[in-house]
């Protein structure tokens, strides 16, 4: 008989995004889960609450809540959601200095306890926080990535499905660039069951939907007034974790460290990659129109200015 070793997944930050991640990971039975937060009692209480739901969902996973990192030892994947969320009127960039300190501290702790882990960053401003995590952990580029592209395409696909009146699952889409209003949705790579999106939606209306996708996070922040989105961000991070744990070789837009791809060097930016057991196993350098490349250049400059500010 072959022995089976259950995977171990740590989620750092037991706020709305982190706790939702832990719940979704449990529902999908992807491995044992450790929920970490500095607030005493919060990760322990939420972990216990989630565990008490497992008999109903008929899943068998261990869920631990803790204020330290000893319990996270030898994690396979670490999802970092820790940090201050946006409030109305704030941009993701306003969180830069506060969250950089938090993400740096977390990454150093994880490097000590789980030196072979793969890091998925959710904290904002996401592209810059990936740089912080990579530098603080010392991990290779394929094991430090950001969640944004999966979330951004999900928003884009949702809005297209609303417009067309079809199932969101029918829509295949891609976008590039930083996680923010400089992201670059690609109508040229958007289809509905293989049919070009231009068959269903006129160019001017499509541009309005693209603009809504760019501001999808801010739209929710303004509606909630006391926090930011968490269901879709958590689900996006869990999809990435599942692709890695199951070695699914999924091609997804992910915030990845570039070394010459698309003409950029030494920067984290959203690009199509293959996700598998090693983390980011390949970056796909797809052809872009002149307009798309110009938009991506603008996104690169916006991300670089944040990294330089660090």
- CATH-derived architecture of the largest domain: Alpha-Beta Complex
Helix content: 40-55%
The total beta strand count reads 14
Order of helices and strands: EHEHHEEHEHEHEEEEEHHHEEEH
CATH superfamily of the largest domain: Lactate dehydrogenase/glycoside hydrolase, family 4, C-terminal
Distance between the termini: 52 Å
Q: What strand order characterises the main sheet? A: 3-2-1-4-5-6
Structural class: alpha/beta
Domain module count: 2
Gyration radius, in Å? 19 Å
Number of helices: 10
CATH class of the largest domain: Alpha Beta
Average pLDDT works out at 95
Low-confidence stretches: none
Oligomer classification: single chain
Major β-sheet profile: 6 strands, parallel
Helices and strands in order, then pairings?
Elements: E1 8-12, H1 16-27, E2 32-36, H2 42-51, H3 54-57, E3 63-66, E4 77-80, H4 96-113, E5 118-121, H5 126-137, E6 144-146, H6 148-164, E7 171-172, E8 175-176, E9 184-185, E10 191-192, E11 195-196, H7 203-214, H8 216-224, H9 231-245, E12 250-259, E13 265-276, E14 279-283, H10 290-309
Parallel strand pairs: 1-2, 1-4, 2-3, 4-5, 5-6
Antiparallel strand pairs: 7-10, 8-9, 10-11, 12-13, 13-14
Write a concise keyword list for the protein shown above:
single chain; 310 residues; alpha/beta; Rossmann fold; 2 domains; 6-stranded parallel beta sheet; 10 helices; 14 strands
Descriptive report:
The chain is of the alpha/beta class and 310 residues long. The protein has helices at 16-27, 42-51, 54-57, 96-113, 126-137, 148-164, 203-214, 216-224, 231-245, 290-309; strands spanning 8-12, 32-36, 63-66, 77-80, 118-121, 144-146, 171-172, 175-176, 184-185, 191-192, 195-196, 250-259, 265-276, 279-283. The chain has two domains: 8-148, NAD(P)-binding Rossmann-like Domain (Rossmann fold, 3-Layer(aba) Sandwich), CATH 3.40.50.720; 149-309, L-2-Hydroxyisocaproate Dehydrogenase, Chain A, domain 2 (Alpha-Beta Complex). It has ten helices and 14 strands. The protein has a six-stranded parallel sheet, with helices on both faces. A three-stranded antiparallel sheet has the order 7-10-11, covered by helices on one side. It has a three-stranded antiparallel sheet with strand order 12-13-14. Helix 4 (96-113) packs parallel to helix 5. The model has no long low-confidence stretch (mean pLDDT 95).
